[in-house]
Design goal:
The chain is an alpha+beta fold and 282 residues long. The chain is built from 8 helices and 12 strands. The chain has one domain: Alpha-Beta Complex (Spore Coat Polysaccharide Biosynthesis Protein SpsA, Chain A). The longest helix has 20 residues. The chain has a 5-stranded mixed beta sheet, sandwiched between helices.
């Protein structure tokens, strides 16, 4: 990185100078990859990530999907709700679509950089990616079990979320031969038919019922939220990340967050007549 000068920041953002330097560095580094070296795709990995044995296998398998499906704009190795108690570690081959940009080990195509580079922000690039103007209704692929974990308690964000969530993320420890699998179920039309049918055919339960009933042989259930406060209260009670970015919940797809509670698949979901994200939810 040739520019190691102090970043120019508004006076009220002086304490956020690190975020301005990071955004400047991303712009330069992705420019090198896509402009100077002219690669057609790149995986972005921060320096405080450990990767799973099938990290590259996963990205190699999803790359053709990204090229074939314009409704996908990236693939991420990360599950924001990937704590050990919240995932089915025995189903490490499971992949999902998510409307939330996860980052933390992610794949993008040169075509996306062509689109983002001219308007790249001076700071807070990851939250900028999560705005509707950049996402434009597109989704990412993400795994059930994370293919990265972070050991970066110390960093520009001063350990925000680290002790509460990040240090508990389960790293996949077995190799899944993704390149030998048919991943066409992740294409939008097929995925929505299958996923939404799965979500809305699951019986609805209340939080206290869910917390009472344990057992691995019970089928999937749906926990319904109505409104931002309802979502946040349920997420908090279940140990999920409860923050929203431009109205999108972490790991959510069409408002639905899929996770495991006491060995049971749970869909935290809005009503079936969901009409889109409300960017005022934060």
């Amino acid at each position: 990185q040739p520019d190691l000068s102090e970043a120019q920041v508004p006076p009220e953002h002086r304490k956020f100078q690190g975020y301005y330097k990071i955004s400047r560095h991303y712009r330069w580094a992705l420019g090198q990859v896509f402009r100077t070296f002219r690669y057609r795709a790149a995986i972005v990995v921060e320096d405080d990530l450990e990767v799973a044995p099938d990290f590259f296998e996963y990205f190699q398998a999803v790359l053709p999907l990204l090229r074939a499906d314009p409704t996908l704009w990236c693939a991420s190795a990360w599950n924001d709700n990937g704590k050990e108690a919240l995932v089915d570690a025995g189903r490490a081959e499971l992949l999902y679509r998510t409307d939330f940009f996860p980052g933390l080990g992610w794949l993008l195509l040169a075509e996306l950089w062509d689109e983002l580079e001219p308007k790249w922000p001076p700071a807070f690039w990851d939250d900028w990616m999560r705005q509707p103007e950049q996402r434009r209704g597109r989704s990412c692929v993400r795994p059930e079990v994370s293919r990265t974990v972070t050991f970066g308690r110390k960093g520009v964000s001063h350990g925000q979320f680290f002790d509460q969530y990040l240090k508990f993320i389960k790293l996949n420890d077995r190799f899944v031969p993704f390149t030998q699998m048919d991943l066409s179920y992740l294409k939008k039309d097929e995925y929505e038919r299958f996923f939404l049918q799965q979500v809305y055919s699951a019986p609805e339960v209340k939080l206290d019922e869910l917390q009472k009933e344990a057992g691995r042989d019970l089928g999937p259930v749906r926990l319904q939220y109505r409104g931002r406060d309802s979502f946040k209260a349920l997420a908090k009670a279940l140990g999920l990340m409860d923050d929203l970015k431009s109205g999108v919940p972490r790991a959510g797809y069409r408002g639905v967050v899929s996770f495991v509670c006491r060995g049971r698949r749970v869909f935290l979901a809005p009503p079936s007549d969901w009409a889109g994200y409300d960017p005022s939810w934060s």
